[in-house]
UniProtKB/TrEMBL annotation:
This is NAD(P)-binding protein. GO terms for cellular component: cytosol. It holds the Pfam family GLF. Residues 149-349 form the UDP-galactopyranose mutase C-terminal domain. SUPFAM superfamilies: FAD-linked reductases, C-terminal domain, Nucleotide-binding domain. InterPro entries: UDP-GalPyranose_mutase_C. PANTHER family: UDP-GALACTOPYRANOSE MUTASE. It comes from Flavimaribacter sediminis.
Length: 374
């Protein structure tokens, strides 16, 4: 009997790999310890309001890769959606990411784009030539006033540590604009699946050569496979033999109200004395249908360290964890018959489109050397 391929995790990485393999003649088992597919992108209708809820926090699909955009549209129509984020700082509401409106409002000025660029340049820490930490990147990026107002407190709550211990690469993901453009992302393709992410991932997995087994941890599977594509936590695969890598998890406090709650999809709360990081109101993530809902549901989001029984959301990648990560990566290279994929499997902070792009590349690499049809 020909051995199957196993994809561990029914999120984007596992689903895309399974589909690509199935379409090229392989039999695939997809396992996930949760009771649903789509991983942390899972969406479902709220029982009380009927609103499509992003159960593990908001997910906005954005990409510059036209092939990835076409790929997701194969399985579920992507509806146009522009992410416009607000932030409440010291009792005032501002636009995020920091743009010309934010700068003028915060400093009480009416600067032109050229004037604002010169003004921020004068505030920025020019003595920091090569930022090594999040804090140094922020100070070089926008100067102390904007950094302390919009980034320092939010980061301490989101990551649970001093920003001086976080790598600079995290802040490099955030734009700074000298125009009134309030689109949080700059990618040409942006949207949200019309029927939710779970419908999208279910469509990817709908193939006769794919078996999906839910509520089933990989460790409980008693079967030999030709190859394993693993998207679970990297250190968990090795039973945490070398130690535990740092992850953050999230808690959500729901709020139900009539009408609307805050009037926007996402409002950040960077002030350090506010315990939550942001509030998301989920009817705004589907503007094409929001008018039919009389009620609303919103979630206050709290970030904390990931414990043994928690769901890991994203890797912390502390500068001090570099050696431990390198040791695990050495173990990965020595492991035969396994490919580590996804945000958790590669211990990297990547977006959904990159996960799909990487998954397609991993599957095609395997197919090119193991294609049963050749």
């Amino acid at each position: 009997m020909v051995k199957r391929i196993c994809a561990v995790g029914a999120g984007f990485s596992g689903a895309v790999i399974a589909r690509e393999l199935a379409e090229n003649g392989f039999k695939v088992l997809v396992v996930d310890e949760r009771s649903h597919v789509a991983g942390n992108c899972h969406t479902e209708r709220d029982n009380d309001t009927g609103i499509m809820v992003h159960r593990y926090g908001p997910h906005i699909f954005h990409t510059a890769n036209g092939q990835v955009w076409d790929y997701v549209n194969r399985f579920c129509p992507m509806m146009p959606y522009i992410n416009r984020v607000k932030a409440v700082v010291r009792g005032q509401v501002y636009t995020m990411p920091i743009n010309l409106h934010t700068i003028n409002q915060f400093f009480g000025k009416v600067l032109s784009p050229k004037e604002a660029r010169s003004f921020i340049s004068g505030l920025a820490r020019g003595d920091i030539e090569d930022p090594r930490s999040f804090e140094e990147q922020g100070l070089k990026f926008v100067g102390p006033q904007l950094y302390e107002a919009f980034f320092d407190g939010y980061t301490r709550k989101q990551w649970g540590i001093d920003p001086a211990r976080l790598p600079a690469s995290i802040l490099k993901r955030l734009p700074l604009r000298f125009s009134y453009d309030d689109n949080y992302f700059s990618h040409p393709y942006q949207g949200i699946p019309k029927d939710g992410y779970t419908s999208l991932v279910s469509g990817i997995l709908a193939h006769e050569s794919i078996e999906v087994r839910l509520s089933c941890p990989y460790e409980a599977v008693d079967e030999e496979f030709a190859h394993v594509f693993y998207s679970g936590p990297l250190d968990r695969y090795f039973n945490h033999d070398l130690g535990r890598l740092g992850y953050r998890t999230l808690d959500f406090e729901p709020v139900w109200e009539d009408g609307e709650f805050q009037g926007a999809a996402v409002i950040n709360y960077p002030d350090p004395d506010v315990p939550f990081t942001r509030i998301s109101e989920h009817k705004f993530f589907a503007p094409w249908e929001m008018e039919k809902f009389d009620k609303t549901i919103a979630f206050r989001e709290y970030s904390r360290s990931c414990g043994k029984g928690d769901i890991p959301y994203y890797p912390i990648r502390l500068m001090s964890d570099k050696k431990l990560l390198e040791d695990y990566e050495d173990r990965c290279r020595q492991e035969e018959g396994v490919t580590f994929v996804g945000r958790l499997g590669t211990y990297s902070y990547i977006d959904m489109d990159v996960s799909i792009e990487n998954a397609l590349a991993a599957a095609r690499s395997y197919i090119n050397t193991n294609n049963p049809r050749l």
